[in-house]
Backbone:
């Protein structure tokens, strides 16, 4: 087969509101930037959905044999409590104050958690993972540039972006579809204490008050950078002034991404991004999953089943399959029923892949395997339509089962296309892992865990709770959860 990428990949560009043919700036290469997490708390499943969506996109671009440089940052400073107006305490500094630890301890703890969780979901690491605090100098340079071009002003040691001035010669709001006039009539008036000239202006640099611990020297005095600026600095540094794809959750479109565009256009005179991709939200009980409202679930609660929403534990691969069953631009609602249905589907897929290598070829082919493979590509080339891809892969599952049962045959060539395509898309593109164990090992493991359950029961009967807890906790640390029920103790492996 010719280069996979000779086929036309189309993607939905939030900037133009259209599906467009993907043509990278440099033939064969893709530069992609995705806004990373603010590491002040454990990532919830909603955050994970966005990162999984872009992992699937990264994987498909790689499958198309592009050389992809994927940059996903870590926000470890500058993200203030009120995203919308950019005010309040720094999220990381606040957590550090409440826990009486160093801000960098907060950053370390939640960066490690983020990496652990993404690894469980089988996300590939990005090519570069830069931090905001590691790029203060670059951010200061951009502020100087914007000041020089006249699109920012300094006041009392802080620097603000002048949105009204910028909008006279540029289009502020073009990504989010907002008009500055509407924003002006909808936002609160400035008070006498406000330093901004207009309520829409946003901070590029904020003066640090004496109690603010996360501070750096700058030409305007000690302070810290505004949240939007870090992404402009890091994307420009690693991908250039104009690059191919910028992604993030839908909720970042405004103000974060709008401000990124304004900062780049003001400092370089160039529009920074060719294709803007926005991933939609994971909801729970119909409402956006969010840290701030408490309407969220942590990945570990799903892996252990310890949450009132769930009747049981689900493995990371099942959760990933559940996410891939929705298009990345659609809202997806999490529920126990939906996860249970995904678990069945995932198992059917894995069962088919488990027998695929033992299939034997025949003299003729009963199915048109080449056109089936083409439909896999067509699905992904249509703005990464993973739910359609999965439906086509289930046709593949049917073929596998028919060949296995002797109800249909495939030539050796078609059989090898079927095998390769199934494995490529399930493992490499969707990033699903086979979590089925060899049946002999599984039998031995099951015997060993039953023995431990029996020993735990004996320890409990003799009131030796130290031993019984130790058995439960150490098994749990290995990813084996014991569940006590009416019919005795059962276990699940995540
Ligand atoms: P944050 O750490 O708050 O900056 O968020 C990290 C990423 O998670 C951003 O791209 C957000 O858009 C995304 N995100 C936050 N909540 C959700 C959600 N409920 N569903 C999907 N993505 C989300
Ligand atoms: Zn960002």
Residues:
């Amino acid at each position: 087969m010719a280069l996979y990428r000779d086929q036309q990949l189309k993607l939905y560009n939030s900037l133009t509101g259209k599906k467009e043919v993907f043509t990278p700036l440099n033939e064969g290469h893709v530069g992609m930037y995705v806004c990373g997490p603010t590491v002040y708390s454990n990532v919830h499943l909603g955050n994970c959905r966005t990162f999984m969506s872009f992992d699937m996109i990264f994987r498909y671009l790689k499958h198309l044999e592009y050389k992809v440089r994927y940059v996903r940052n870590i926000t470890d400073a500058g993200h203030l409590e009120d995203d919308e107006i950019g005010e309040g305490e720094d999220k990381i500094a606040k957590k550090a104050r409440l826990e009486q630890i160093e801000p960098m301890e907060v950053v370390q703890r939640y960066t490690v958690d983020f990496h652990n969780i993404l690894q469980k979901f089988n996300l590939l690491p990005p090519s570069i993972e830069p931090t905001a605090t590691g790029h203060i100098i670059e951010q200061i340079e951009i502020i100087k540039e914007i000041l020089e071009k006249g699109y920012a002003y300094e006041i009392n040691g802080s620097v603000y972006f002048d949105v009204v001035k910028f909008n006279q010669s540029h289009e502020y709001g073009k990504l989010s579809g907002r008009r500055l006039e509407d924003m002006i009539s909808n936002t609160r008036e400035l008070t006498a204490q406000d330093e901004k000239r207009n309520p829409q202006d946003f901070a590029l640099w904020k003066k640090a008050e004496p109690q603010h611990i996360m501070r750096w020297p700058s030409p305007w005095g000690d302070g810290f950078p505004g949240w939007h600026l870090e992404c402009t600095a890091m994307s420009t540094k690693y991908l250039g002034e104009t690059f191919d794809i910028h992604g993030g959750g839908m909720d970042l479109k405004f103000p974060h991404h709008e401000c990124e565009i304004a900062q780049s256009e003001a400092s370089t005179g160039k529009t920074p991004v060719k294709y803007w991709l926005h991933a939609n939200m994971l909801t729970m009980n119909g409402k956006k999953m969010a840290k701030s409202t408490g309407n969220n679930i942590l990945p570990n609660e799903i892996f252990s089943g310890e949450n009132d929403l769930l009747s049981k534990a689900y493995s990371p691969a099942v959760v990933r399959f559940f996410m891939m069953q929705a298009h990345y631009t659609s809202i997806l609602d999490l529920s126990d029923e939906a996860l249970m249905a995904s678990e069945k589907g995932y198992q059917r897929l894995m069962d088919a892949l488990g027998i695929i290598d033992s299939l034997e070829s025949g003299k003729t082919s009963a199915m048109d395997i080449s056109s089936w493979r083409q439909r896999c590509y067509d699905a992904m080339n249509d703005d990464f339509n993973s739910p359609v891809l999965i439906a086509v892969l289930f046709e593949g599952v049917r073929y596998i089962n028919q060949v296995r049962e002797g109800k249909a045959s495939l030539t050796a060539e078609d059989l090898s296309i079927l095998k390769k395509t199934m494995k490529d898309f399930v493992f490499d593109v969707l990033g699903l892992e086979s979590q089925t164990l060899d049946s002999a090992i599984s039998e031995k493991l099951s015997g060993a865990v039953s023995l431990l359950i029996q020993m735990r029961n004996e320890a409990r009967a003799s009131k030796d709770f130290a031993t019984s807890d130790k058995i439960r906790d150490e098994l749990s640390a290995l990813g084996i959860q014991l569940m006590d029920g009416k019919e005795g103790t059962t276990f699940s492996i995540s």
Summary: The chain is about 45% helix and 15% strand.
